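Example (one chain per record):
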Amino acid sequence: MFRGVHNLTIDAKGRLKVPTRHQTQIDKTCGGKMVISIHPDDACLLLYPLGDWQKLEQKVSELPSLNIHTKRLKRKLIGHATDCELDKASRILIPGALREYANLGKKIIMSGQGHNFELWDENTWSKQLESLDSLSRRETIPVEIAQLSL
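Predicted structure:
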């Protein structure tokens, strides 16, 4: 499981060094092979270990192909997917088109989401959290969340 929020820097060549605490897990679960793609709804990128990505890709491929929501999901998520691999320095290269989509500057946030990571521009991440907080104050808390004991 990938947890935590990490403040990181993208180097001049578009590479991101994966935090040390996740390197061993990534190496064990997928031999350093990962997939990066755009988030279909948010201005961020998704980074998955190859095995978890393949499970997600299989689920998406089983959706009704003529459904407009399936088409949108496939074109955004699957269509932008790019294989990447940790190099010897535990870095991944983020393709320029994906960096541009997520408006990634030099400073980014890598947020563990369990089976994957989200990669956000640092400023966009802060605005997104503020927006979510504001929206959640206006909505009724779902029963499943209200019953969750923290």
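Caption: The mean pLDDT is 95.
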